[in-house]
Inverse folding.
């Protein structure tokens, strides 16, 4: 219980709660649009944003948000250019982001190594009140946008051509979605770490997709799973001293394995019952 | 009154290679037009040009912004690959078919009783009402095709643009489907442009026939429409 008395732990739980609300929404759309790796790309670019901020002495979260938003637009452009091989855009920007981050870190004469480590692996100690507020605003924004635009988004993820012929502004929607994903990654990264932020966004939705047949059902279950993963990951991180991002990811992976096993077992039980019933008949 | 679709001297080329040339025709309200051609005759490419998914390299395509009663024209499109939904897409049959109603001014409004009735009738018309709670990814190819059609019927569009919509359907289902389209065009003034290989079956229902034929004087595999092949349909 004593951990709840620490200000940094309170902020960590508040931030985790907010991340759990938005991650499954973004994660589901990323998966359905075959862009799961986009989160990874943007997290690599985020590192460059942080390195830039540290180099020029500006709050890294702000440089990060600006850089990631620009790259999110470039990503959409490249996705259209390489329509058939959309992973090319991911590969190009992922390596570009990492290369830029390393160069900027090099220019900083090693002074920012400690900070960079925090951004790479995440840290619950460094979460500021300002970051929690930013996450709060972002959560409200994403939640509202989802509630208002869930029908256009459903069609967009189902089939882009159908969405286009239905008169939806698919380019604008895609760019806005990319920017929102980028900003979420930029704000979330200091807490869970650049290396695992994409896992935390994608995993809850990936697990819940196997548990619900309905679109909204997937998001609701995803939120519950994210809450379980985030909260228990934080507790483990505090008790054992492991990096929060890694702890949360491992717990979500355990949930993934468990749900897969339970699904498989329940499927076999169902089949067996069916055979038994047929035998009786 | 504008044509629903008006294609004037359309040409399309992919990089340097001409694919389509000299395409001109119009689709009006109540027209049932079938578009045929051998495999690889760029039928889908032509549809994609018409819908704005591809840009013609020459000529123009105009789609009327309004329908015959002056309201915003609603297009219902079923693409060739729309039935190959990814198996994991988290949606029931009912959710997907309901999404057809969004185009009817329901992007930001709740579906009402009339919408739900449209959805029920659309699912009934393709024999999929009983399966409305199934996950779409678990359906067979033919069933997926049926719910794609149910979705477009639920939209109740002014203009149907259909790309080989009967793939995977048996003869009886195809006949039923053509009758339904005919009813929609004749009784409700819907315009229909349909790419098909079932030339012989549909000629009893369609009003016009456009055939894409290979240009013999071109060194490329380029297709055009022979104006004589556009027939006013006397069969029905």
């Amino acid at each position: 219980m004593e951990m709840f008395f620490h200000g940094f732990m309170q902020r960590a739980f508040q931030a985790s709660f907010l991340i759990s609300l938005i991650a499954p929404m973004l994660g589901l759309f990323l998966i359905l649009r075959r862009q799961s790796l986009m989160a990874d790309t943007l997290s690599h670019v985020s590192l460059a944003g942080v390195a830039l901020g540290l180099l020029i002495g500006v709050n890294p979260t702000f440089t990060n948000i600006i850089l990631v938003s620009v790259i999110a637009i470039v990503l959409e452009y490249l996705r259209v250019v390489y329509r058939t091989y959309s992973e090319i855009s991911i590969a190009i920007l992922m390596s570009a982001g990492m290369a830029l981050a390393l160069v900027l870190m090099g220019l900083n004469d090693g002074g920012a190594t400690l900070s960079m480590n925090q951004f790479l692996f995440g840290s619950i100690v460094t979460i500021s009140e300002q970051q929690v507020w930013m996450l709060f605003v972002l959560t409200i924004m994403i939640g509202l946008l989802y509630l208002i635009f869930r029908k256009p988004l459903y069609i967009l993820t189902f089939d882009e051509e159908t969405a286009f012929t239905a008169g939806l502004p698919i380019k604008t929607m895609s760019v806005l979605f990319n920017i929102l994903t980028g900003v979420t990654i930029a704000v979330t990264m200091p807490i869970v770490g650049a290396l695992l932020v994409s896992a935390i966004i994608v995993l809850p939705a990936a697990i819940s997709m196997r548990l619900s047949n309905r679109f909204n059902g997937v998001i609701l279950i995803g939120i519950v799973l994210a809450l379980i993963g985030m909260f228990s990951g934080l507790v483990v991180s505090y008790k054992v001293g492991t990096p929060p991002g890694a702890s949360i990811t491992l717990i979500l992976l355990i949930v993934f394995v468990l749900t897969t096993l339970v699904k498989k077992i329940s499927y076999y039980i169902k089949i067996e019952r069916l055979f038994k019933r047929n035998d009786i008949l | 009154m504008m044509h629903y679709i008006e294609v004037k001297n359309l040409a399309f080329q992919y990089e340097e290679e001409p694919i389509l040339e000299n395409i001109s025709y119009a689709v009006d309200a109540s027209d049932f037009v079938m578009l045929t051609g051998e495999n690889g005759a760029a039928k889908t490419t032509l549809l994609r040009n018409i819908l704005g998914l591809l840009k013609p390299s020459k000529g123009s395509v105009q789609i009327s912004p309004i329908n015959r009663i002056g309201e915003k024209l609603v297009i219902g499109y079923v693409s060739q690959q729309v039935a190959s939904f990814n198996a994991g897409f988290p949606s029931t049959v009912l959710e997907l078919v309901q999404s057809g109603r969004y185009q009817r001014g329901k992007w930001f409004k709740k579906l009402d009783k009339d919408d739900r009735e449209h959805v029920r009738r659309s699912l009934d018309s393709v024999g999929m009402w009983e399966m409305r709670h199934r996950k779409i990814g678990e359906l067979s190819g033919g069933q997926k095709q049926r719910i794609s059609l149910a979705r477009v019927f639920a939209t109740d569009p002014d203009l149907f643009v259909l790309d080989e919509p009967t793939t995977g359907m048996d003869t009886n289902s195809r006949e039923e489907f053509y009758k339904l389209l005919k009813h929609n065009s004749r009784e409700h003034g819907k315009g229909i442009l349909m790419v098909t290989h079932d030339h012989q079956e549909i000629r009893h229902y369609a009003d016009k026939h456009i055939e894409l034929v290979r240009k013999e004087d071109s060194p490329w595999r380029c297709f055009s429409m022979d104006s004589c092949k556009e027939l006013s349909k006397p069969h029905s």
The mean pLDDT of chain A is 88. The two ends of chain A are 57 Å apart (CA to CA).
